[in-house]
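Two proteins were folded this term; both appear here.
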Amino acid sequence: MISPLTALGVSAPILAAPMAGGPSTPALVTAAARANGLGFLAGGYKPADALAEQIAAVRAEGVGFGVNLFAPNPIPVDPESFRRYARTITPEARPYGIDVLSAGIVEDDDHWSDKIDLLLSDPVPVVSFTFGIPQAAVIAALRAAGTLVIQTVTSPAEAHQAVEAGADLLTVQASAAGGHSGTLTPRHLPAFIPLPELVRQVRQAVSAPLIGAGGLATSAAVSAALRAGAAAVMVGTVLLRADEAGTSHPHRAALADPVRRETVVTRAFTGRPARALRNHFTDRYTALAPAGYPALHHLTGPLRRAAAAAGDPERINLWAGTGYRHATAEPAAQILRRLIP
């Protein structure tokens, strides 16, 4: 096991991934810790005060935990492409009374500075980053505050950059992962490389401890990642139906729906590559969506929220990795323990 995490009381090599947008609740993070692993609060899409409330809730349980942030790595959207896409998806939004044509281009940084200030003034045990690599000074400040820093990478080249910036550990994310890819070059779809092979490639490139992630849903898959050189693994999709997860009802139902037999990598919802179950929206708009994050995320957000509230699985982002068939409705601790080789 990774010695820095062992010092935090982590004795099982299975970590619960941060899943922004609702699934990663304080209860799920706590359950992962009580299963001798580690869970991560998802700081993405939250203002600092909301994140602080979740941190306080987990701290009250007396367990170790981590916080994940989206590091700024925007994909500026072409204005005309943005307006064209808004016109294209108008038929999907109209039944919900949403006017996407009047939406402006929002290019924010997800409250980055406020959340870094929070984590420096009130340090947590572990902070992980995805989408981009923070400035070395930010990483150094967190480490000086006693925080372990983990960086998501998707290639050996990214691993080199993360180590040079000062990250303590690396999460090696394969393209089989559900939700957004952590790639630093999101205008290009990441190559499909099996996780064990990607871990071996990164292991040859850097000496930092590695956490394998992407498509892991069985003990055999976990074992393969560990044999390849990962000191631990991180799982997400397999926990989406867990009792403690905050996953929406239509998303939970879709994961269990035998009719859904495929995942795809799409920009249709957010303008950034992400793996999801196929549905009407991915089928119709994947090929039409421009690159542009967070502009497309903000454009489609009202539609996705309305569709989720209405129980409509065809117009929401059904994030899922390739192992989604193994997601089960039961306590998270049982799911995590079953994955230990």
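Next, the second protein.
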Amino acid sequence: MSEDLPGAGELIVLAGLGNPGPQYAGNRHNVGFMVVDELAGRIGGKFKAHKSGAEVLEGRLSGRRVVLVKPRSFMNLSGGPVVGAARFFKVEPSGVVVIHDELDVPFGALKLKLGGGDNGHNGLRSITKSLGTREYYRVRVGIGRPPGRQDPADFVLKDFSTVERKELPFEVSVAADAAEALVAKGLTAAQNEFHAG
């Protein structure tokens, strides 16, 4: 086992972030939901409502036991459901992987990391506060910066552009591949495979 493998051989929580409801489904802020939906398709199961305040799906990815988590709260309250699910399944912070949109990574790219700040992301801020630590894994799916003077808070709540939507299924699939690689091979190997340049 690689020493930078999430969860040290135990169950792993893969939490995708987004806002609930059909009006948000195509938003940039919801790309985390899109990625865990893709992973759910690979597992071959359906999400079920859970007492943690999230929808969860248990299964196996790349030979490891995982729980996919989609909070049913709004983004800035993601911490309660994510941490509630992690505690229910007895998963330590080192076994939590959060998949989220990232303004500072261009659309079409992604970054994997352990720990760090929230970079103004309210979902991460809520999870860090609820977990009591920043030491959890992140799959940062690039959405790029807003054009011109558009407020980032407005930008993340808009749907992907027409051009981006053509590429989006591929980008979501690659982000799901990266999450699987992180789970199977550890952070360094996954970074080497998925970080461009």
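The chain has one domain: 6-194. The domain at 6-194 is CATH 3.40.50.1470 (Rossmann fold). These notes refer to the second protein only.
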